[in-house]
Amino acid sequence: GYAHWKGQVLNSDELHELYEGLKLNKVNRYDYVLTGYTRDTSFLAMVVDIVQELKQQNSNLVYVCDPVMGDKWNGEGSMYVPKDLLPVYRDKVVPVADIITPNQFEAELLTGRKIYTEKDALEVMDMLHAMGPETVVITSSDLQAPSGNDYLIALGSHRKTKADGTRITQRIRMESPKVDAVFVGTGDLFAAMLLAWTHKHPNNLKVACEKTVSAMQHVLQRTIKSAKVQAGEGNKPNSAQLELRMVQSKKDIENPEIIVKATVL
């Protein structure tokens, strides 16, 4: 990412004030809420209060949460937000979420269980289902891909309750080619596209994830190709050159050619 940034960070009081303005204007009915990176426990708690109130306005509201807390580098996990956010995510945020998109490390943090195998990952997703969300997508992992070391494994699970009370769970695995570059905003883009495609395909996680991951690949490949041209032969692209080419990828985002297939487990 970039070495420097300037500006202000919205705090919980300011978020509450903005939401009160929406209520006064009677524009506080939403179909979806999507949240991502935050560093403050009071802000996160305010998000929960707002989501719960919005769900009272519309019981069909879908809350998509990307529980951004950390990641793994060379097999070692590390949090890049304050540690006191973990219990807020685990005990307050995840229980009101409908869809969550943790990476492997974040899924391990939320459940207190390590993932070493695909079986572990499936059991961790079941634990996350039990906490509240109907849909869980582990967006990246360090599991060994059947196709080899050049591929990244993502896993998804969708649980729904039928009219007779029985539960059906659809589980999938995806293998996508690794891209040798560091991008900013890929998690945000993934969560936003998963929201869009689960809206289009609410009962078919396989199709929703295939479209999401395929679109991601189109954006990343276009970005790295353009960045290498800008950097010049033999030079490593910088952060500015690696800005995601989303505008240029509009058609791929709206109607992606499926280049990453999901395997039903």
From TrEMBL:
Q: In which pathway does it act?
A: Cofactor metabolism; pyridoxal 5'-phosphate salvage; pyridoxamine 5'-phosphate from pyridoxamine: step 1/1; Cofactor metabolism; pyridoxal 5'-phosphate salvage; pyridoxine 5'-phosphate from pyridoxine: step 1/1; Cofactor metabolism; pyridoxal 5'-phosphate salvage; pyridoxal 5'-phosphate from pyridoxal: step 1/1
Q: Which reaction does it catalyse?
A: pyridoxamine + ATP = pyridoxamine 5'-phosphate + ADP + H(+); pyridoxine + ATP = pyridoxine 5'-phosphate + ADP + H(+); pyridoxal + ATP = pyridoxal 5'-phosphate + ADP + H(+)
Q: Which Gene3D superfamilies match?
A: 3.40.1190.20
**Cellular component terms per the entry's GO annotation:** cytosol
Which keywords annotate this record?
ATP-binding, Kinase, Nucleotide-binding, Transferase
UniProt GO BP: pyridoxal 5'-phosphate salvage
**What broad class of enzyme is this?**
transferase
Pfam families named among the record's database cross-references: Phos_pyr_kin
* EC number assigned by the record: 2.7.1.35
Q: Which GO terms describe its molecular function?
A: ATP binding; pyridoxal kinase activity
Q: Boundaries of each Pyridoxamine kinase/Phosphomethylpyrimidine kinase domain copy?
A: 47-237
**Family the UniProt entry places it in:** Belongs to the pyridoxine kinase family.
**PANTHER family assigned:** PYRIDOXAL KINASE
Q: Could you tell me which NCBIfam families the record lists for this protein?
A: pyridox_kin
Functionally, this protein is described as follows: Catalyzes the phosphorylation of the dietary vitamin B6 vitamers pyridoxal (PL), pyridoxine (PN) and pyridoxamine (PM) to form pyridoxal 5'-phosphate (PLP), pyridoxine 5'-phosphate (PNP) and pyridoxamine 5'-phosphate (PMP), respectively. PLP is the active form of vitamin B6, and acts as a cofactor for over 140 different enzymatic reactions.
- The name under which this protein is listed is Pyridoxal kinase
Q: Which organism is it from?
A: Drymodes brunneopygia
